[in-house]
Write a structure and sequence with these properties.
Strand content: 25-35%
Structural class: alpha+beta
Distance between the termini: 22 Å
Largest sheet: 8 strands, antiparallel
Number of strands: 21
Oligomer: single chain
Helix content: 25-40%
Shape: globular
Mean pLDDT: 96
Low-confidence stretches: none
Amino acid sequence: MLRSLTNVPRDYAWGSPSLLAELEGRTPTGAPEAEVWFGDHPGDPADVAGGGTLDEVTGGTLPYLLKLLAAARPLSIQVHPTREQAREGWARESALPLDDPRRNYRDDNHKPELIVALSDRFESLSGLRPVADTVRLLDALEVGPGVRTLRERLAGEEDPLGDAIGWLLGGGAQSEVEEIIAAVVDAAAGAAGEEYPALRAVSAIAETSPGDPGVVVALLMNHLVLHRGEGVFLRAGLLHAYLSGLGVEIMAASDNVLRGGLTPKRIDVPELLAVLDTTPGEVPVLRPSGDEAVTAYPVPVPDFALRRVRLDDASITLDVDGPTMVLATAGSVRVTAESGAETAVPIGTAAFADVAERTLTLSGPGEAFVAGPGR
């Protein structure tokens, strides 16, 4: 069976007032529109055409959550736990109400995620930069007590990045934080900003989050620019933040987030450091082949799989295994199921095929993302 899904955009403050409206070809509302959820997560289950919500159809059993995400300003720096860490944290906090502000864990699941850019430019911070490369960035800054102390902490042998992040977020380094931010802004405005785009990115973050220690945490992270169709997988323990742009995001069905800056929300520094993987390194970009009609984005988790399908006048038939969604992102997309059910999928909406369907035929012209369980 096929069902048509829609949802109302969530109005988080970091959302774009125009990107989702432009995608869907409608007049902007003037309010921030950050995310549209297509899933059965109890936080915001998708609406089913004809009445009801998707969780009433699935019983809340979908292993993944598919989203459209539109950012005009940086999201909070964050990290997600492994499944084992989530189970332990959920059990540890079992006596706290779900809406208790002291709670870190909203469920007992992990939350790996994949983002694929829909805009021509999608900026993010993904993972921690190798220390030697960050030290080279610091060489471009005017040296004051804050920059000097950060360099000293990064020179440590045991866990320099964890030590630096704990110091920055611990509440006792605000004067040093402000001095480092000022040095970054000054350097980004000069020749160093041309040589090091990451400095300009961090300076822009400082404009939206003045004085936030997370701005200096951002200085320790890889600045990544995705182009349309490119994706990045974010595993458990990997520090990250989306900065700007429009994308399709898919993740394990969880709401477990440990924050590390750029947010007015609570930051539990000890728990953040317990979950954070401070191993530095570049995060690989998943790049599609230019001539492929179907692009797969391989991920090392069984919770979800995502494919991009570009349609011309010919139709494409895909094998599917499990509950599947087709999210339209361009053109005019139509889906026909093995059972004979058929539906149009307007841009910014999705079609949901239950487990009885084994193949889906997509026709266009247009573009769609096909999400389902992984293997």
